[in-house]
Amino acid sequence: MDKLVFNKEAHKYFLNDIPIPGYSEIIETCGLCDLSNVRADILEASRKFGSALHRTIELWNKDDLAIDILDPNLKPYLNGWIKFCADYKFKATESERQVYSKLYWYAGTLDNVGLIHNAKTLVDVKSGLILPSVRLQTAAYRNAYNEMNPKGKIKRRLCVKLVPDGYKVEEYKDENDFANFAACVRVYSFKKQYNLIKGV
Questions:
Q1: Cα separations in angstroms, 157 against 137, 161, 169
Q2: Mean pLDDT across 146-166
Q3: pTM score above 0.70
Q4: What are the structural domains, with CATH classification, of the chain?
Q5: Which of 13, 49, 128, 185 is least surrounded by CB atoms within 10 angstroms?
Q6: What percentage of the chain's residues is helix, strand, coil (to nearest 5)?
């Protein structure tokens, strides 16, 4: 059985002890998520808040969240998630699931999978700007998940932007999204082969 490991400190994935690029590494290498103009302290604060929010949602999905001691800055965003789940009758069956594709050779961690109107749906959560590359992100995660679970495939892709006590939803239906991500994988592989990736 394959073993996927994520080194949190290095932010690197390993499949069967072999380095495998993560979604973010691929998309950043291709210039589709350039945050170089954002101050480092702002990026770090955003990263920490996003990680804390995702952990909060994961625990809430599992009915294991101690709301009474929850950071008050997170609670309004959790309320937005709770409202989304109620309005869409969504219950996550999987949260923070690590996935990989051996065919295209990449890995990542998707946010949530569950049913909406009897269709297995991937729900990505954001608390900040929704970049165009999110459509590629959801397509990449769906493809990897479906490769690993051919009998229980994800059908729909949603991105939920949480705002205090509310949410906004985008659904992605363009099947070209994965083809565009696959092109990014090819560019990443080329740049890796010829040592064109900065910092590597």
A1: 10, 13, 10
A2: 97
A3: yes
A4: 36-182 (3.40.1350.10)
A5: 128
A6: 40, 30, 30
